[in-house]
Specification:
The protein is an alpha+beta fold. 48% of the residues lie in helices and 17% in strands. It has helices at residues 2-7, 30-50, 68-78, 108-128, 134-143; strands at 11-15, 18-22, 81-83, 86-88, 93-96, 99-102. The two termini are 38 Å apart.
């Protein structure tokens, strides 16, 4: 599969059973970049079929990352993105290995989620604090960071 992806000029990362394709596009040739992505994913889907597996494009997501100016120009030409013959809407953000990436890479949503999670778990620790030794409480508190 890696050879198929690189033959199309794309880059990829694998995590367990997930594959991420990365395609760099300039604002003035998004149609060409999206055509390359569609062709690549169609070839990957065909390869899956040949080895008896099935690619599930319904579990696929698309995220376009860029500056505010780039995103304004690209916005109308990118939605939807065709992956293995299925049109995917362009997401506002995407979770990758526990990190929420947004279209401008600001990490605002990711930070909000981490802060919420820490507060949630700190409240849980507060409820059982009277049952813990000082050392255990410190260990739990440090694990939130």
């Amino acid at each position: 599969m890696g050879d198929i992806i690189t033959d199309h000029g794309e880059h990829c990362h694998w995590y367990a059973d997930d594959t991420q394709l990365h395609l760099a596009m300039s604002v003035d040739n998004t149609a060409v970049g999206l055509a390359v992505l569609a062709a690549c994913t169609a070839d990957v889907k065909q390869w899956y079929l040949q080895i008896g597996l099935q690619l599930n494009p319904d579990k696929s997501e698309a995220l376009v990352v860029g500056t505010a100016n780039q995103l304004c120009v690209v916005d109308s030409s990118v939605s939807p993105v065709s992956v293995a013959g299925v049109d995917l809407p362009v997401a506002e953000d995407m979770k990758v290995l526990g990190v929420v990436l947004d279209l401008r890479l600001t990490f605002h949503k990711h930070v909000s989620i981490v802060v919420w999670s820490c507060n949630y778990h700190a409240q849980d620790i507060r409820h059982i604090r009277h049952l813990l030794t000082t050392e255990s409480a410190q260990t739990l508190a440090c694990s939130l960071i």
